[in-house]
Amino acid sequence: MLTKTIPRILIVDDDEILQNLLEEYLRPHGFKISCLSSGAKIADHLKINLPDLILLDIIMPGKNGLYWLAYLKRLHPHLPVLMLSAQSGANDRLRGLELGADDYLIKPFHPKELLIRLRKILGIKQPQANGYIKIGEQFFNPERELLLGKGQTIKLTTQEARLLTFFCKNAGQTLTRDALSQALHGSDHAPMDRKIDMQITRLRKKLEPDLGTPRHLHTVWRKGYRFTF
After folding, report:
1. Given this model, what pLDDT does residue 188 score?
2. Distance CA 212, CA 186 (A)
3. In this predicted structure, what is the pLDDT of residue 130?
4. Are 115 and 144 in the same domain?
5. Is the pLDDT assigned to residue 4 strictly greater than 80?
6. Are 114 and 54 contained in the same domain?
7. Segments in the chain forming alpha helices (H)
8. pLDDT (mean) for 120-129
9. Least CB-packed of 95, 134, 201, 216 within 10 Å?
């Protein structure tokens, strides 16, 4: 049986607003997020939860991120660390790389750039072989309008396949009913077409392992829907 391991990211940054923004952005893209406001709490956290990657800010109260980077690399030399800093000076960047940082990102940055760098460091690729896209424990073929997995083949309608393709292309984004209707019907769609809810329900029955707790098609209250792989 195919299994899906959720990568665990630890964010160490004293900027709580940035913590919340990154967590809100990264969770729908398939990451489990934990946050610390200072490096002094790293040791205790790692005793309980060892993440797959650490986002580590340089400028923090007390000892800075370069100190904690050296500490981490002594304790866990193979644990990936991506440094964050509001400073663009070469000295800190070079020092961080010398100490073993796997990458370096200067604030402010676009969250999509961070996502790309995280996936690259962790070796995460959205499997898409022979026209199939991996969604949880299933594989979706847009052209053949099929879902494969769990020992069965599920035939999708053309509308369901088109809808799921649009979700895959916009994973992690909140999509309004209007946007979804337009993707299905083009300029002839009816604004805020409530029929989209019925199509989502039918698609969920074929896609979700548990309708009570959807893993992929999430309802965003008063806004629309969000899809995650």
Report:
1. 60
2. 31
3. 59
4. no
5. no
6. yes
7. 16-26, 42-48, 65-75, 90-98, 111-122, 158-169, 177-185, 195-207
8. 68
9. 201
Sheet hosting strand 174-175, strand order edge to edge: 174-175, 224-227, 217-220
What are the tokens at 51?
Answer: 């993440």
Tokens of 57: 């800010």
How many beta carbons lie within 10 A of that of residue 126, not counting itself? 12
Give the type of residue at 86. Answer: A
The neighbouring-strand residues paired with 10 are: 34, 54
**For the whole prediction, is pTM greater than 0.70?**
no
Quote the number of domains for the chain.
Answer: 2
CA–CA gap between residue 70 and residue 161 (Å, rounded): 49
Judgement on whether residues 111 and 137 belong to the same structural domain of the protein: no
Which residues does 119 contact at the CB level (< 8 Å), separation at least 6?
125
Residue 59 corresponds to which tokens in the numbers above? 């400028």
Task: Read off the pLDDT of each residue in 16-21 and give the average, rounded to a whole number.
Answer: 92
Give the residue numbers spanning the domain of 30: 8-122
| Mean local confidence (pLDDT), 32-43 | 91
DSSP structure class, residue 18: H
Q: Could you give the 3-state DSSP secondary structure of residue 32? A: strand
The residue type found at 154 is I
